[in-house]
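pasting for ref
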Amino acid sequence: MTADEIKDSLREAIEELNIAEHELNRPNDDIVAMSVCLSAKIAMNAMMRMYLLSNGSTHVQGKSLMDLQKKCAALDNDFASLDFSRVFCNSLEPHECDHKYCLDTRTVSGCLSVAGQLKTLVLKKLNLTEAALA
C-alpha cells in the first residue's frame, strides 16, 4: 500500500470519526447510539490497520479491535496505554457483537473518546496532521 493510499484511508477514518462525533452531539432524543458505535469502530479499525501497514506489517487483520491494538503495541508500546475496556463491543464481526452496549449514549461516548485518543496517537506516530490529510 502506498503512502497516498494510507493517507486516503486515514482521511476516510477521520471522516467516519467526525460522523460519530456529529451524531453524538445531536439532541439526546435524536441520537442513534448504534450509529456512533459503528462509525467509531470503523474509524478505529482503519486507523490501526493503516498504522500497521505504514510500519511494514503485512498481516493486519484481527477479530477485534483489541487484537489490532495488541499488534500496534508490539510495534510501539504507547498503544498499550489506550484503554480499550471502554469499547465494550470491540468485535469486528457484527454477528459476534452484543449490541446492547451500543444502545447507551454514555457507553458509546466512552467508545468515541477512545477513538479520539487513538486518532491523536496514530497521527502523532505517523508524523501527520489532519490538515495534511485534507
